[in-house]
Design goal:
The structure is a single chain. With 339 residues, the protein is an alpha+beta fold. It contains 11 helices and 14 strands. Strands 3, 4, 5, 6, 7 and 8 form a 6-stranded antiparallel beta sheet that branches. Strands 10-12-13-14 form a 4-stranded parallel beta sheet, with helices on both faces. α3 crosses α4 and α8 packs across α9.
């Protein structure tokens, strides 16, 4: 997780004894940063590195830019723990080079970024080569982020990647089984792990109390906004996707039923390729297979909606029907408060 330094996750030791003591203080604890949940993530390992005599701290990264639809190399002479603050308060200090995937990263882009980071003439070529190799790594491994922070200049003037972070594109992991094997489930939220194991792939745990089952990422985000606007808090993000099998809906309800924070469930479906009758059948089947003792708010529209509503009515299942988005959000918030 980012922000480890500020959260006390990075210690400086001057002897093996100090290193052992510092490791003992961290191991077994939970690290809470601005990039983790309130519960934090467990510390099960420590990495011991040789301390370096650092003259300057720089920043270098590559991400996929959604607006331009291409990778972008970002660099700054203001690296280190405060890079997020730099990006927010002085964005002009973050230099960018957009990379055409057909042409790759060009040497002139490397020189321009190196110059912008106020590197010396002797450091220009090594920095440009580092950037070129960073892009090769990014492309070859289907990464969504490669970040070096800090990229330091040592006392003798050399460039050194002192810390790095790499995010891999989940949808490309089938090409990188070696990377997939490195996945540490202990660092993930237990409910997210359970959801993934059950085949509910787009579940993200949040800190609210209203479970959300929605089809479509945009609709799911709109639902979360409306719940918040109505005075509630969503317990999760979940895009159930194009559902044409009952079991995936049942699995989603299993996840909701496992979360002790969930006090009400809101189902908001606008069926296109996803059939409303299949969703309805899944809802009914979930309540047959398990004891779900919490209010259920349902809004259904789209493909086979009449059949879906008929199935819900004939099931004798107790639920609160909603007519539109905001009606569903308001009823879910009220149900969670009274539950």
């Amino acid at each position: 997780a980012g922000g480890r330094g500020k959260a006390g996750g990075i210690k400086v030791a001057n002897s093996p004894e100090e290193a052992e003591k510092a490791a003992g203080q961290i191991l077994g604890t939970k690290l809470v940063t601005h990039q983790t949940t309130a519960e934090g993530v467990p510390v099960s390992k420590v990495l011991v590195e040789k301390a370096m005599d650092v003259k300057r701290e720089l920043y270098l990264s590559i991400i996929v830019d959604g607006a331009s639809r291409m990778p972008v190399m970002m660099a700054s002479e203001a690296g280190g723990m405060d890079i997020e603050e730099v990006a927010q308060k002085t964005p002009e200090k973050i230099l960018k080079a957009f990379i055409d995937p057909a042409a790759g990263f060009q040497s002139f882009q490397g020189r321009k970024l190196a110059y912008g980071m106020n590197l010396s003439q002797e450091q220009m070529r090594p920095a440009s080569n580092l950037m070129s190799n960073l892009y090769k790594l990014f492309k070859a491994n289907d990464c969504s982020l490669v970040e070096i922070n800090p990229l330091v200049i040592t006392a003798d003037g050399n460039l050194l990647a002192l810390d790095a972070k790499v995010n891999f594109e989940d949808n490309a992991l089938f090409r990188h089984t070696d990377v997939e094997q490195l996945h540490d489930l202990e660092q993930e939220d237990p409910l997210e792990v359970k959801a993934n194991q059950l085949g509910v792939k787009n579940y993200i745990k949040m800190d609210g109390n209203i479970g959300c089952l929605v089809n479509g990422a945009g609709l799911a985000m709109a639902v979360m906004d409306l719940i918040t606007h109505a005075g509630g808090r969503p317990a999760n993000f979940l895009d159930i996707g194009t559902v044409n099998n009952v079991d995936r809906v049942v699995s989603a309800f299993k996840v909701f039923n496992t979360d002790p924070n969930v006090k009400a469930i809101m189902v908001n479906i606008f069926g296109g390729m996803a059939r409303v009758d299949v969703i309805a059948q899944g809802i009914v089947e979930a309540h047959k297979r398990m004891d779900i003792d919490m209010p259920l708010v349902v809004r259904l529209a789209g493909t086979n909606v009449a059949e879906g509503r008929r199935m819900m009515a004939e099931s004798k299942l107790k639920f609160i029907e909603a007519s539109d988005f905001y009606d569903a959000a308001q009823k879910a918030v009220a149900a969670a408060r009274s539950s």
